[in-house]
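Lecture notes, unit on protein representations.

Consider one protein chain, 247 amino acids long.
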Amino acid sequence: MYFQILMLLLLVLISREQCIASFGHFMVCALLHLGMINVPCLCCASSWNDHWPWCVAWLFRFRGWDGVTPFEEPPLFYEGVDDFTADMLCNISTEIQEVKHKINEEYPDIDLSAVVHVTDWIKRAYQGQISDTTSLGSCIRTNSAYKGLTHAMKKVEGGYVPNFDYRYTSEDIPMGLVVTRGIAQLCDVPTPHLDKVLNWFEEHVPKSFLVEGKLTGTDIATTRCPQRYGYTDLRQFLVASRLVSAE
């Protein structure tokens, strides 16, 4: 019933001149969920070096933070991306491309052409709005659409601290990054950079997703990864998802 109501509202909002273009199937959405990559990476970034702290985009920004000292002002989210974080984003996106290729090696009829590298995506999505396309980092930092955006912070005495309850982590990690990690696990594709982000997140929240490199942690039940629903085989998962025939 709720679905029918939502569809009716959608039809009311869209005029006759407009149309909805299909973006493929859920696997494309799962592997091309760029928020799950950008946000966590940008958060982890600064806690591992001498720079001021910042989960891939949101988490790695705070990789050097002591967990106590507040910031005077909320740090810039995209404009503050350093090369370390940009490299992490790039490496995770490359790992996702390896997952895509592994699926297509076994199941070439599954169309994953829309799953592109984050560097290609940002150049296409923000064409004309990026002043320096030299690297992924420069694309992010010089994107006018990102100008002035800051990290999600909480006001405390003496300044601001990261808000780890914000949707960047409370949603993009369990409903995005962990899902992709689960698909990679079904494909037997190693994801060391993605795992590094998850491990950092687990330490600071705390949550338990990865145990000895497998998604068997106590908080898997709070995610949407295939392992939560008992899938341990890629074909089994794809058949259940109606992406391949059971025959």
